[in-house]
Amino acid sequence: MTSQPEKKRNEKGHERRRAAVKTRTAVAPGQRTRAADPARLVAFEVLRAVSGEDAYANLVLPKSIRKHRLDKRDAGFATELAYGALRGQGTYDAILAKCVDRPLERLDPAVLDALRIGAHQLLAMRVPAHAALDQTVGLARAVIGAGPSALINAVLRKVSARSLEDWVEILTAGETDAVKRAAIEHSHPEWIVRALRQSLVAHGRSVEEITDLLRADNDAPVVNLVALPGLGDLDEARKAGATDGELVKDSALFAAGDVGRLDSVRAGTTRVQDAGSQLVARALAEVELDGSSIDEDGVEKWLDMCAGPGGKATLLAALAHEQGAVLLANEPAPHRAQLVRQALDAVPGETWNVRTGDGRTIAEDYPETFDRILVDAPCTGLGALRRRPESRWRRQPGDVGDLGILQRELLTTAVDAVKPGGVVAYVTCSPHPAETTAVVADVLRKRNDLELLDAGAALDAASLPGALEAGHESTAQLWPHIHSTDAMFLALIRRKI
């Protein structure tokens, strides 16, 4: 008779139950969910910098991509994830509020950012739900902790139960206010939706275009490049996949990859700049002056009154160099003035100089001095929401009025600093009438020596033949949904002789 092994019993004599034999996968669960995917980690770092440090996504993202050595594919994923989560923040937060058992403001900010990243993957990216959940929980375990990761997992499972369209339908059910519905559906603050509706009408367009405009704000923009005239070229960018721009000469569209890796970009002879910004700078440089305003030496004097961080100033300086003119770039903040100098280094030094000081005092030092002046006025940036997705959540309605005072002061100073016969370009990256037409009208109303030039015709002349067709307008407004540019406003004001 074969002997049986002695069964183990507890102290009461009861037979102990044997534990079930566990099967293990090649990778233990703890190891699977603690790993932070580098692309998602980059997106998370961007959101943390934006929400925790008031950083700008477009400045943080390239540095984080390089730090984690992402390849082209992962860099593209990280970019789409970071920017998409920021653009969709309003809608995602409304959805998350339905899935969390406490007010969102009581969540740890890092947890909320992780939830936003997970929500964007689940609702707006071609990422399988199981991958979005597992990777987001793994990210949370790696950078936040095991405790919060359980909450994130539970909340995102609730989010994944419905599509984005179904969530929007739930959130807007019974809502009859078109502005509130649009704010939820297109992830814009209500006040910005109202402001953009008003802007369309003020600039002669139909309010029915608001849906197309809001959608354009949420589209991922293609990177616009400009080769500085006479100094740079686009050959390297083309070899890297860029295509020639369709609106303005010396421009290109760069759809994917890190442009900072291009030698020409590092050298500063090729720059990242929206086509709308290129157009307004060229329009000022090319508009005809009254010849009697130019000094006997024939050298035109140009001024960029609000030059930081130096994008338009550098293009203007390159154009000035071509035309034998000189440029003074003014910037009040010393650290931004240094950025302007660095940007201008690509242009021969005899063409430009930098002044650090308040633009509103420049007419005291340089009365009736300049032939061409660019007033790229500080504004709400409502025209660049697609490129700066975080700004829609930072701006407040009161900013419009506060900035309006500064805008009027700067433009008033500019018309004092321009020579009789010279031209001032008033530019904002906002279509809001309180920052555009109202500012120009107020300054013109107080003087009888100013006249509006045809800004639409000037933009047409500065663009590639037949590409823009802005029309003949006293002021001109570009639009993301019409021109695929930022919503740049341009007024050209000549001081009469």
Protein model, in words:
- With about 500 residues, this protein is an alpha/beta fold.
- It has 3 domains: about 30-165, N-utilizing Substance Protein B Homolog, Chain A; about 175-220, no CATH class; about 275-385 and about 400-495, Vaccinia Virus protein VP39 (Rossmann fold), CATH 3.40.50.
- Helices cover about 50% and strands about 10% of the residues.
- The chain has 23 helices and 12 strands.
- It has helices at about 30-35, 40-55, 55-65, 70-85, 90-100, 110-125, 130-145, 145-160, 165-170, 180-185, 190-200, 210-220, 235-240, 265, 275-285, 310-325, 335-345, 360-365, 390-395, 400-415, 435-445, 455-460, 480-485, and strands at about 225, 245, 250-255, 270, 300-305, 325-330, 350-355, 370-375, 420-430, 450, 475, 490-495.
- Strands 5, 6, 7, 8, 9, 10, 11 and 12 form an 8-stranded mixed beta sheet that branches. A 4-stranded antiparallel beta sheet has the order 2-3-1-4.
- Strand 6 (about 325-330), helix 17 and strand 7 form a beta-alpha-beta unit.
- Helix 4 (about 70-85) packs across helix 6, helix 10 (about 180-185) crosses helix 11 and helix 20 (about 400-415) crosses helix 21 (about 435-445).
- The radius of gyration is 28 Å and the shape is globular.
- The protein starts with about 30 loop residues before the first helix and ends with a strand.
